[in-house]
Amino acid sequence: MYEFLDYRVADVMTAAPITVRPGTTLGEAEALFQEHDFNGLPVVNDSGALCGFLTKLDLLKAFRFTDESLFPPYEELMAQPVEGFMSRDVATVTPRAPLTRVLQKMIDAQVKSFPVLDGEALVGIVAREDVLDGLRRAVSGEKASSPY
Questions:
Q1: What is the C-alpha separation between 101 and 87, in angstroms, rounded?
Q2: Computed over its alpha carbons, how large is the radius of gyration of the chain?
Q3: pLDDT tens digits, 9-25
Q4: Among 49-58, 115-124, 137-146, which is the least confidently predicted range?
Q5: Residue 73 half-sphere exposure, CB side, CA atoms within 13 Å?
Q6: pTM over 0.70
Q7: Which residue in 10, 70, 77, 148 has the most C-beta neighbors within 10 A?
Q8: What range does the domain containing 57 cover?
Q9: Residue 118 is part of a domain; what is its CATH number?
């Protein structure tokens, strides 16, 4: 179990994650959620910089009942761009971050995943499943392998 103390985000993250642009429709994002069972999608601008993060919960929030509409029109909402629903203040981690700290950060923030930035570059995504995988690997005696 002590091996887990040496694990870094880079040891378990999904490198080069699938991303969407701010103009991607909610329908297109929903199809990616369905196809890949993602927790969230990094939203990047034309230069590839992270500008937001869209979660399944953000998608569901689009369908809130309002005073103007008891039932939002599904087709109209799904045609809306993700930029109107994504989180812009995105919590991120670095590839060098200790997995122990990321585990605590996930618990404290009650989030399922974090985009991984190396400087300004999006290099991966780390999810709860990845942290659990790191725990399993450490318990089995597997050493951390990232260069960080």
A1: 22
A2: 17
A3: 999 999 999 999 999 99
A4: 137-146
A5: 5
A6: yes
A7: 10
A8: 2-139
A9: 3.10.580.10
